[in-house]
């Protein structure tokens, strides 16, 4: 018969070292195996009332599993409030080159010496600073994916793009060119990952660079904010993810776009299909620009 759940108040809603709480007499080994707890990592347990999201896992790794570890990369972004990693994704952390930790399931270990200026704390957890985190987001992923991550991080205002680009220029090493390329392509203005991907697609197609998050006005009157705009052509481009709300959201979006049309603007919509097969979208944008130029 399985042991009955027993939750001491000191452990309720928390993660902890199993061996430590047994030594302290808070739980017996049998009680630790009850349904009150779930094992996250070797000798690391959490109360089943705790929401074990990626932040909780990162904190468990850096505070309990590897107490000297520093949370880095996308995991660090999560601790800074930018959800770039899901609960099931491995936690990324850095340890000293002399650390003898073995490979761990659902943990990506990097052995790197971080300077004191690159590390801070979020509560009791060591984490890379926003600038160091931003630079790490430029590493290790394909170019567009890294630009998406950096754009999302920059949008939270934790660090500015000029600082990231300046720091990227000072880097050396095998991946410094990739980091600089990512920083050069980011703008921190996208309202969604797909908007970043759409912006990169437009640039590679050779279209004139649009203005992101442009405010359409009718004289001095505010009309709407659009994802992208070419003001000289009075042309707006919207990613179609905005239509995925309920009826009230649909009506609000329709009214907004009617107002944009009344102000003399045309609006083109892009969808996920256009990101995969962009030829039709690009041709439509070019025709709109040509028509306005010749008018």
From TrEMBL:
Protein name: DUF559 domain-containing protein
Record InterPro entries: Restrct_endonuc-II-like
Phylogenetic placement of the source organism: Bacteria, Bacillati, Actinomycetota, Actinomycetes, Geodermatophilales
Superkingdom of source: Bacteria
């Amino acid at each position: 018969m399985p042991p009955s759940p027993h939750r001491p108040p000191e452990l309720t809603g928390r993660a902890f070292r199993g061996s430590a709480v047994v030594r302290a007499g808070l739980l017996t080994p049998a009680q630790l195996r009850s349904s009150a707890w779930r094992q996250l990592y070797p000798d690391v347990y959490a109360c089943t009332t705790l929401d074990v999201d990626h932040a909780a896992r990162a904190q468990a790794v850096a505070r309990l599993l590897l107490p000297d570890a520093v949370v880095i990369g996308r995991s660090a972004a999560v601790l800074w409030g930018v959800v770039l990693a899901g609960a099931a994704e491995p936690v990324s952390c850095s340890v000293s080159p002399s650390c003898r930790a073995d490979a761990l399931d659902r943990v990506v270990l990097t052995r790197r010496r971080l300077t004191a200026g690159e590390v801070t704390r979020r509560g009791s957890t060591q984490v890379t600073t926003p600038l160091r985190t931003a630079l790490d987001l430029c590493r290790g992923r394909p170019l567009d994916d890294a630009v998406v991550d950096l754009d999302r991080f920059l949008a939270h205002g934790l660090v500015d793009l000029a600082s990231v680009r300046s720091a990227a220029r000072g880097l050396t090493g095998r991946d410094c060119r990739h980091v600089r390329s990512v920083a050069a392509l980011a703008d921190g203005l996208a309202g969604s990952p797909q908007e970043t991907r759409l912006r990169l697609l437009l640039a590679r197609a050779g279209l004139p660079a649009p203005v992101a998050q442009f405010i359409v006005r009718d004289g001095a009157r505010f009309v709407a904010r659009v994802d992208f705009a070419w003001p000289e052509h009075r042309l707006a481009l919207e990613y179609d993810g905005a239509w995925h709300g309920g009826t009230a959201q649909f009506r609000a979006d329709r009214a907004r776009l009617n107002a944009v049309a009344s102000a003399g603007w045309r609006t083109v919509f892009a969808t996920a299909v256009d990101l995969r097969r962009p030829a039709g979208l690009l041709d439509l944008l070019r025709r709109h620009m040509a028509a306005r130029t010749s008018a």
